User: Fold Hotdog fold thioesterase from Mesobacillus zeae.
Amino acid sequence: MTIQLDDQAIHDLHYDEIKQVLKDEPFASFLGMKLTKLGPGSAEAELITDDRMLNSHGTIHGAIIFSLADYVFAAASNSYGKTAVGVTTNVNFISTGKRGGILTANAKEIKKNHKLAWYKIDVQSENELIATMEAMVYRKSQYFIKQDK
Assistant:
């Protein structure tokens, strides 16, 4: 007899493995992003910015801000060990990130069902809200963790 675990139970049982997979995300690592919190349907990460991340106006490039928001979106939506892929995002840039500052992004799950999930992401620079993102994922039926424990 196979026991079917719910998302929360899978997150709790496989937390270390899930976190390690998400922490080792190649593009996030390349940019220097650090996953600082991971909960069921939530995530937080930070990035210490440097001069390579600036645009021609001397502020943090929008692609960097988007990348950090996308990273926590991916971490939060994959926090149950089930493969989730982005379907749509909508980003609002509110203010600028400053040279040498620390960007922090938080993702929170708003709603999910067996196939789709919706998230709200905020990006801050030095405690100032600089961007928001609304995003949706498609939740595949495959898991990226081993479930034979």
About this structure: Residues 7-143 form a domain with the Thiol Ester Dehydrase; Chain A fold (CATH 3.10.129.10).
